[in-house]
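Hi support team,

I submitted a single chain yesterday and got back a structure, but I'm not sure I'm reading the token output correctly. Could someone confirm the output below corresponds to the sequence I sent? I've pasted both exactly as they appear in my results page.

Thanks,
R.
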Amino acid sequence: MGVRVVATLLSVGVAAATAAATVAAWDAGPDATTGGSGGGRCPTGRAAPSWAPNRCYVACPPRAVRTDPSTCVHTIRWRGNTHLWVANGAVTLLARSTSPAARAAAAALNGTACRDAWESGMWGEDLLGRADNPLDGDRRGTHFFNARGVRYDGRKTSVVTYTYLWKSTDNSALKEMATLVSRLGSLIDPSVETCKTLGAALHYVTDMMPFHSSGYSAFSSPPLLHAVAEYYVPTIQAAHPPVGGWSSTSGPGRGAGVEAAFVAASVESNKLAPALISAFADGDGDDSCTMTPDAPVVYRGYCFLGDPAVDREVGRALALGYDTTATWLAELWRTKAMT
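Hi R., thanks for writing in. Yes, this is the structure output for that exact sequence:
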């Protein structure tokens, strides 16, 4: 008998929702070798719940608790903000740097008034009218940019965003970023308006993660994995904090300018896409889930919750994101505030 895994979703900024996952591999039956009487000594991979201490059931997934013979309740926090998490990681690296441009950028972004403004500007780029929308020709592809010319599945492509109903677009995150940068005021003691515009530009810089740099959209296979994975990452991102400080001499995109730093972020992130998507979509187990983190998003596929391979690949992508975002900010300050 399969276990019904109910994911209790605690959302930030949206109403709480629930999702159910039918997982064939998580058999809820009693331990066959003991006839169901575990005596408090369950074999590896099985556990006795508090309400039935003498029965051994197959252990629930990580961070889940069995509430009856066929149900595990898994509590996770959806809808965190990975854009902000990555940007804060970048600012942390810059603050630890010995580069004058890096430290100046960190000081400006950590100023109370500026921080409030840039966080607001960053958030606003995912709201109605600014979010990427495949049904809107003006917004389709605006949050994607593939500078490497290689898709998530390893095939070469000339499409720099993604294809929807066999159509691509001239829009791109690179163009959005460049337009916003052109509107910036002085970065020396930046105004609130400049900080807000900077935050909007930072949104597209922090979009340069593996899905967005390889054309892996919500319509790619398996459908809606992109959306659900982005809901899930905030639940594990705290396990991957920024390490060390930013170096002005070692790493991609240094010293080449703002646009080149953005392009380098896309290229390096693109290289991580196959392993990350494989971890989310394939895994090593046979578990199959249905997740509904936020209607109308419904994902059916490999149950990646708690998979160590997913955690590892997300950690790699985040570490790169901290570094490339820090590089973009340092280049912005070096070219526009330090000359």
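A quick pointer for reading it: Residues 1-40 have pLDDT under 50 and may be disordered. Let us know if anything else looks off.

Best,
Support desk
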